[in-house]
Design brief:
With 262 residues, this protein is of the alpha/beta class. The protein contains eleven helices and eight strands. The strands form two sheets. Strands 4-3-5-6-7-8 form a six-stranded parallel β-sheet, with helices on both faces. A two-stranded antiparallel sheet has the order 1-2. The N and C termini lie far apart (44 Å). The N terminus is likely disordered.
Length: 262
């Protein structure tokens, strides 16, 4: 597999005669190729300075692509993989890795959301830097992840070079945020003082996070949290009333600006 120009983090499947023939990353040259090649030239082969990681994503083919990209360029050594929140917690507990690279939204048998998983990881494994990969373009979510100790946040639609830079930064104890997500943080001014926001209950925050951050419907939230749809709707209405917001769009915009931490 040729990853000479892995400048996009989107995947495509090549089918020949109706069969899966190859899994490749787009090879189009991009503006950040020079940065990628520079980083690649400075990297060592796997096992000679590259951090050991646990890689988590609920899509096996995505894990495969990320693993191949990282290991083929000597950027990380994948010691284990996980396809759910439970599998990730178990893998990190039993594998002496140096870093966690995980998708934000993954299945969880106990109905927790992505932030709850991050909260558990940082509490149970405070010595392991976390790099989060997400498709959610939400500055409030990014702010919450950083507040909970995440070292790097990478947008799924970004360059593979950004993931390499994120891993390098996290290994050095520095923070990294994808370029497009950084611009969102600046433009939306998400740093709002805690005492400026009305106090919401834990149940209300859980509902709002799933509604605004993950885009779930009331029925999906009901199933995720094992609550009745009527209860979910009541929590949502109560939060809107406290915040003085009349519409779903206003609620979404508010959640994009603030950190809904528990």
């Amino acid at each position: 597999m040729n990853f000479r120009y892995p400048c996009a983090f989107k995947y495509r499947l090549a089918f020949v005669a109706g069969n899966l023939d190859a899994f490749v990353l787009p090879m189009a040259f991009c503006a950040r190729e020079a940065e990628w090649l520079s980083l690649r030239g400075a990297s060592m082969s796997v096992g000679q300075g590259a951090p050991s990681i646990i890689l988590a994503d609920d899509h096996p083919i995505v894990r495969y692509g990320i693993r191949q990209a990282l290991e083929s360029q000597g950027l990380a050594k994948v010691l284990g993989e996980a396809g759910s929140a439970r599998e990730l917690l178990e893998a990190v507990a039993k594998t002496p890795c140096e870093m966690i690279v995980t998708d934000f939204s993954m299945p969880d048998e106990q109905n927790r959301d992505g932030l709850s998983l991050i909260e558990r990881l940082t509490r149970l494994f405070p010595d392991k830097p976390i790099v989060v990969i997400t498709a959610l373009r939400n500055p409030g979510l990014v702010a919450a992840l950083l507040k909970h100790g995440v070292k790097a946040v990478v947008e799924k639609s970004g360059d593979i070079a950004e993931l390499a830079l994120a891993i390098k930064a996290a290994s050095s104890g520095r923070k990294y945020i994808s370029r497009s997500l950084r611009s969102l943080l600046v433009s939306h001014e998400v740093a709002i003082k805690e005492n400026d926001s009305p106090k919401l209950t834990r149940a209300e925050i859980e509902v709002l996070r799933l509604f605004a951050y993950e885009g779930l419907t009331s029925q999906q939230i009901s199933e995720r949290l094992s609550r009745s749809r009527k209860t979910v709707s009541r929590h949502k209405r109560s939060a809107q009333a406290k915040l003085g917001l009349a519409t779903n769009q206003e609620l979404i915009e508010y959640c994009r600006r603030v950190n809904l931490a528990l």
